[in-house]
Structure formats: C-alpha cells, structure tokens
Write a structure and sequence with these properties.
The protein is of the alpha+beta class. It is built from four helices and four strands. Strand 1 and strand 2 form a beta hairpin.
Length: about 150
C-alpha cells in the first residue's frame, strides 16, 4: 500500500472544510487561501483550488465580488452565502465529532501501575475508572449465606 496515496486522500477529505473555514472568517482572495493553507502545511495548487471554488459557488455556498487592483486585473474575493454559512456550521460540527472520536481511538493510553479499570485520556487529563472486585448486593436477603431463613421467621 502506498502511504503517499493514503495521506493525499486524507488531505482531500478535509480540503473543502479548510477552505470554507478560511473564507468564513473573512472574504478571501484565492492566493491568500493558498498562502494560509501552505502555512498550515496543507499545500494546494491553483489547479485544485479554482475548480473547487467554482463548484462551491455553483452550489450557492460562495459568492464573490470583483475588486479593482492597482497592480493588474481586478481580483475576485470570495465570501460565504447564508446557505454556505449553514453548510460550514454543519461541517464544523461533523469535524469536531469525528476529530473527538478519532482522538479517543488513537489517544487512548493505559497508565503504568493500573491493573484494573478503564483509563481514558481527556484533553491533557487522565481519568481512571476502577471497577470494584465484587459487585455490591443492594437487595435485602431473606436467607443467610447457607440459604436458611432468619431465626425470627421460623
């Protein structure tokens, strides 16, 4: 199995969410999106970004406006539409749930010296739940340990 292919697929899975996350903070010019993605070590090429922005715009998730530029042609700045903002919120919720679940799976570590119970790492804290050795009987028994009724009932 090719690790680069798997890594690429993982990045593609979060690419749309990351781009929408950048745009939801403030309207963005595509080269600014590329630069911010590079800073986060999520390199994206113009040939990948522009078709994605067009698809999101055609789905009414993004709008754009032209801004005159003193150093060249006008620039297209993207922003979220109302529908795009709602879509982003859903993606954000999904990401947080999935991220938390993955962290539970890959971050669950056992502590040395803890023989029984459950050990769970939670945001820098470690929680240990120790199971009792024997269950505690909360029912009132009408017989003793030899299955004899109490003497006052004979």
């Amino acid at each position: 199995m090719n690790i680069e292919n798997t890594q690429s697929q993982m990045r593609k899975g979060v690419l749309e969410f990351c781009i929408l996350s950048i745009i939801q903070r403030e309207e963005a010019y595509p080269s600014d999106i590329i630069e911010e993605m590079k800073k986060a070590h999520l390199n994206i090429l113009e040939g990948t970004l522009y078709p994605l922005l067009t698809r999101l715009k055609n789905a009414d998730l993004l709008a754009y406006r032209w801004v005159e530029s003193s150093g060249g042609p006008p620039r297209k700045y993207f922003s979220l539409t109302e529908k795009g903002a709602a879509f982003y919120k859903e993606l954000e919720n999904t990401w947080r749930e999935m991220s938390d679940s993955v962290e539970r799976v890959i971050g669950n570590k056992k502590l040395e010296g803890v023989e029984e119970g459950k050990v769970e790492a939670v945001e820098g804290k470690t929680e240990v739940q120790v199971q009792p050795e024997q269950p505690i009987d909360t029912e009132i028994s009408s017989t003793d340990e030899n299955n004899h009724p109490p003497t006052d009932q004979v």
